[in-house]
Design brief:
This protein is 30% helix and 22% strand. It has 10 helices and 18 strands. The longest helix has 28 residues, at 102-129. The two termini are 24 Å apart. The strands form 3 sheets. Strands 3, 4, 5, 6, 7, 8, 9 and 10 form an 8-stranded mixed sheet that branches.
């Protein structure tokens, strides 16, 4: 069912569901300032919220550091810096076991685990809230995490789905080539079982470089298959055509009819465009249908331009231990940047094929006399939108600055102004979807 009104509903559920902190329009309301774990300083964050990182999980990782005879929060920054380079600018084609060294595993738990945990929740919560995706009813929810590492993505999914569907059992199969990471995942799941009751985790150590062990080889089909920052690792030596064929075969074999494939990758331009090319090939071929990030069914129009590329930029508040480790590293950690695609064998609800529903694919830029932004709309095209400063009060300007790259807007009364589409007034922003 497409959304056409501000109060539209998908599958008889409100697009802006009760579990989210959202900026509403007419007028906007700004989100409350959040503390280091995503709460508003007075109330703890909801387990259903995107930016929720459990204090119990941070404490669990700090205790692992305290148990070490060698490593402390004071010296883990060296290991974190090495991992950061491996994950971005110095990616190793050999796909090594990053977690073989205890210091690397501990540094990951303090510094990277929170980012991956929160990052995974943005696209998943959006397809649940905004697109109406649900796992098959009256069955256990089955999740497959390929390249799971210590489980930051699959445990986040596990906790979020338990919060959303508390009556359902959730079963995770985690596959990785690192036995050290998988052993940590198993212990974490057992020790913090109160975060995900009615759940189970099955681990399988695989060498992800070999196609025969690349994906799960059993007979189960899954409601959700997650690849979080792992696809680009184990396909470095593959051609684009080989990757498309691999994912096509995996979707046919692994996904239930309403199952969802969620691939999250770094926001680097080359990586993001490779992911988008993969998704476009799969959608055009008809193997799967687009469920995100775009609102239309076809290919990405940004592949034809060098100005912007498809990725998200989301603000969050890192946990205190991560901030402490970063004192020596001095990295920008208060923004999460990533690209993603969500696909399913079942078609998704689509927005009307107009320029009035769009996803923000650029910063909300304040130019002389106006706000300027780029969006990919329901008509499958990229448009430039502007909103003039005049008649905006200070509260409205402040609210507009809080809109993030990746948010979804619905507007009305658009006016063509040269090569731009002008939003006449603040009141012409009908709806704003913002996951918090």
């Amino acid at each position: 069912m497409p959304f056409t009104e501000a109060n539209s509903r998908i599958n008889n559920k409100p697009i802006l569901s009760e579990g989210s902190t959202v900026l509403t329009v007419g007028p906007f309301s700004c989100p409350e300032p959040t503390n280091s774990h995503g709460g508003n300083g007075m109330n703890p964050p909801s387990p259903e919220s995107t930016r929720h990182y459990p204090e119990a999980l941070e404490k669990w990782w700090k205790e692992r550091v305290e148990e070490s005879d060698v490593h402390t929060l004071e010296n883990l920054h060296r290991n974190a810096s090495v991992l950061s380079d491996h994950f971005t600018v110095k990616r190793n084609k050999g796909f090594p076991d990053y977690f073989k060294k205890p210091g690397h595993l501990l540094a990951y738990g303090i510094y990277f685990h929170p980012k991956s945990w929160v990052r995974t929740r943005f696209p998943l919560l959006e397809v649940i809230e905004h697109r109406g995706w649900m796992p098959d009813e009256n069955e256990d929810i089955h999740i497959l995490d390929i390249g799971s590492g210590p489980g930051s993505a699959c445990l986040s999914v596990l906790q979020l789905l338990h919060a959303r569907f508390p009556e359902r059992k959730v079963r995770v199969t985690a596959i990785d080539q690192s036995p050290h990471a998988l052993d940590t995942l198993r212990h974490c799941h057992t020790d913090l079982n109160h975060l995900w009751p009615k759940s189970s985790v099955r681990i399988q150590s695989k060498n992800l470089r070999h196609r025969s062990t690349l994906f799960y080889g059993g007979r189960d089909r899954f409601d959700l298959v997650v690849l979080s920052f792992s696809l680009n690792e184990f396909t470095t030596s593959s051609t684009p055509e080989e990757v498309v064929g691999l994912i096509q075969a995996s979707c046919r074999k692994l996904l239930k009819k309403h199952g969802l494939l969620l691939i999250i990758e770094p926001a680097l331009k080359e990586t993001s465009e490779n992911l988008r090319s993969l998704a476009d090939s799969l959608v055009v071929d008809g193997a799967v249908h687009n469920w995100g990030p775009y609102l239309h069914a076809g290919p990405c129009p940004l592949q034809q331009t060098n100005k912007f590329w498809s990725h998200e930029v989301r603000s969050w508040h890192p946990p205190e231990s991560m901030q402490y480790l970063n004192r020596r590293m001095q990295r920008r950690i208060h923004e999460l940047k990533f690209s993603y695609v969500a696909m399913s064998p079942t078609p998704a609800p689509l927005a009307p094929k107009t320029a009035e529903h769009f996803r923000l694919v650029s910063p909300m830029s304040r130019m002389k006399g106006h706000f300027l932004m780029s969006g990919v709309a329901g008509d499958g095209l990229a448009h430039t939108y502007e909103l003039m400063f005049r008649n905006l009060d200070s509260e409205q300007k402040r609210t507009l600055r809080k809109i993030e790259r990746g948010d979804i807007l619905q507007v009305k009364n658009l006016e063509q102004f040269g090569d731009r589409l002008r939003i006449p007034s603040f009141g012409d922003i009908v709806q704003h979807y913002h996951v918090s």
